[in-house]
Design brief:
single chain; alpha/beta; five-stranded parallel beta sheet; four-stranded parallel beta sheet; flat
């Protein structure tokens, strides 16, 4: 068996930053609360819980005066203001690329445009973006949603997207919106983040030479699920696994060329553990990295974290 390793894979800059924020906060303060999973990965969250992080879904679960960290997926301005009003010390770990979408939503709403937000209605990122201007945003998940949508003025509409969607599916959705609303406005830069884009492009390369592709990531991870779907859309068997304990004999039966990648919220150590597991069972095998997109992106820590550190 030969194993093709995706490059790039695993943590993106936004995830790295969010996890670092929680770890730094835990080093400096006795107790830290995090609203929602900091990123959608079971192993990452479990590790941070062991370090002392307390994850909650509602601000009412947090004692007054506590430090509260917002997850990489972002929250609406209303949630931020509520946290401040309740006396919490707020640290915002929202990915800057998600913040970009929030600012676009606020801008379009102020201009009086009705916004179509392409994304998964129940995903926390979409909930946060929608919350910036709920009266001006319609979330659309499918082509059928677009067909039945009604807006006050068909000539004054805009489109935004969740950052972790399938590129191909999103292009279809935008094309349908443009067909129905020819004057629809879009941001200058694509909302789908660079990490989503380059990881999906690499999976498409993998699909040309692999029998099966394993995607390392949690079931709650949007970008990990999209990687699996991209592989399947290319006609290749693909499975989403949290770690090596979820690999079954059926997944690897008859496989000669195995593709291995990881979602943007999955740590590299999980992938390395899978390689070690494969070696134990199959002996030595050839490993080749595949991909054509580098990753040299980094984001600064939020100023509120630095300020709280200075106060300590």
């Amino acid at each position: 068996m030969k194993v093709f390793l995706a490059n790039p894979r695993g943590f993106c800059a936004g995830v790295d930053r969010a996890i670092d924020i929680v770890k730094l906060a835990l080093k400096r303060f006795n107790r830290v609360y995090v609203r929602h999973e900091i990123v959608h990965n079971h192993h990452v969250v479990s590790d941070l819980v062991k370090r002392g992080a307390i994850f909650v879904e509602d601000l009412d679960e947090v004692p007054p005066g506590s430090i509260i960290i917002f997850s990489a997926h972002g929250v609406s301005s209303e949630v931020k203001q509520k946290a401040i009003a309740q006396g919490f010390k707020v640290i915002d770990a929202t990915c800057p690329l998600v913040t970009k979408v929030h600012l676009e939503a606020i801008k379009y709403a102020k201009e009086g445009l009705h916004i179509f937000l392409i994304g998964h209605k129940q995903h926390v990122e979409v909930v946060g973006t929608w919350g910036e201007a709920p009266e001006s945003i319609t979330v659309v998940e499918t082509l059928a949603d677009i067909e039945k949508a009604h807006v006050p003025d068909p000539d004054r509409v805009a489109v935004l997207t969740q950052t972790t969607l399938s590129l191909d599916d999103t292009e279809q959705m935008i094309a349908a919106l443009k067909k129905r609303f020819p004057n629809i406005r879009q941001p200058r830069a694509n909302d789908i983040c660079y990490a989503t884009t380059n990881r999906q492009d690499t999976v498409k390369l993998m699909a040309k030479c692999c029998d099966t592709i394993l995607v390392v990531g949690s079931a709650t991870s949007s970008n990990s699920n999209r990687l699996m779907e991209v592989a399947k859309s290319c006609g290749v068997r693909s499975f989403l696994i949290d770690d090596e304990t979820q690999i079954t004999a059926e997944m690897l039966q008859g496989v000669e060329n195995l593709g291995l990648t990881a979602g943007a919220s999955a740590p590299e150590l999980l992938l390395q553990s899978i390689l070690a597991w494969l070696k134990e069972r199959y002996g030595s095998f050839e490993i080749e990295e595949i991909g054509n997109a580098g990753q040299n992106v980094s984001f600064m820590l939020p100023k509120e974290l630095v300020e709280l550190q200075d106060q300590k």
